[in-house]
Amino acid sequence: MGHYRLGVHIRFDVPADPAYPGRVADALSRVRLRKYELIGAVLAAVGAIGLAVSGGLAWGDKLSLLCMPLVVGGLLSMLYPPWVRWRARRRSGRYAVEGAYDITDDNIMMRSGSESGGIAWDGVARVKATPEFWIVYVGRMPATVIPRRLMSAEDAETLRAYMAGRGLLPPR
User: What is the pLDDT of residue 85?
Assistant: First the structure.
């Protein structure tokens, strides 16, 4: 990765919006739980194919006994991520506190209420863009989000160019 200099200190506030923590939880859980939806779809498809095939076979009853749990397990696996997101959104409303981001060449500092923490850019593996957030990955795990909609358009473009210069986002 190159050493692309931001040259601008980006700071912005996060209002105490009860819906904001839910949107953050939703964005992070979508990334973390995608594998359950994919595995569930494969299990349900294999089970459904097995059930369709089992009708014409002499040992079809035994095959259908095996395939039915695959279908049910696949459907439950596909329903798990939406259930987790719904619970996270429902619980997160009580965590609505004012916060702020302070982004420099070296790190991303976040404050939420009386808590604060940061991530050094050198530890960021990649950044994924969604319509509302940049999801910041440390290793293979999403670590935090940067809310693009709360930034000025100029700061958002400066940060996007900085992340692209570091190889964390694809250039436009």
Answer: 75
